[in-house]
Amino acid sequence: MIQSMTGYGRATVTFQAKKIHIEVKSLNSKALDLSTRIAPVYREKEMEIRQMIAKALVRGKVDFSVWIEKDDTQASMPINTAIVESYYKQIKAVSAKTGIPEPQNWYDVLLRLPDTLGKPEEEEVSEEEWTAVRTGIENAIADLQAFRRQEGAALEKKFHEKVDNIEALLKSIEPYEKSRVPKIKEAIVKGLEQIPEVDYDKNRLEQELIYYIEKLDISEEKQRLTNHLKYFRETLDEDKPNGKKLGFIAQEMGREINTTGSKSNQAEMQNIVVKMKDELEQIKEQVLNAL
Asked: What pLDDT is recorded for position 154?
């Protein structure tokens, strides 16, 4: 069963006072194109996160995000009490020595001075916390994979429908293919009869007609296209990523359809070829999204 490269997954992990959100999205791409936005506290784990994603998702343009939601008490900036006290004493001493009035609003002045608001202590990720976050990442990836499988099932149904349509159109060419031999002969003979005082060798005419018909014969193209359609179906049933392979098969199908069109000398046959091209074009558009 094929998978789509389009997907979305998310997970939320609660660890102590933290609420950790994980989100992963993917679109189609020829290779794995991974972009990450990781909360600073987990940056040291970026390589491990990338390896997890690459192993699970294989291909696609992937956007990964992990961020932390904290309550207001956790997010507030701590006041450096010792530095504030030191500034307060120094300002009072300068005021007493110089006669400069002390500030009326001490807090406005003190809290604007350097280093009075301390930086939050750098957090270290414990093994327990990382285990919880890692589980959340695995859950988000699994959620995305489930989405990919669901989209892949719809793709597979569409592919089978289009292949069946091409196969039916290919069979519908046969009546026109068989009837064109007598029509070609009739047209040539009529053309010769319209030329006055021309005597032609009927045996030579038959030889030239056979040569002409052989050039227009599409038996090999039909057989190769039938084989490609069969191979496309077999590839759909493979239990592994096969989007690129399906794309290559679709290209080969296109070659046979184009050659059939170039050999079709009847409007009815050319109309059928145009319909086959339309069905194939829809396959090519959708196969770009297959993993």
From this structure: 92
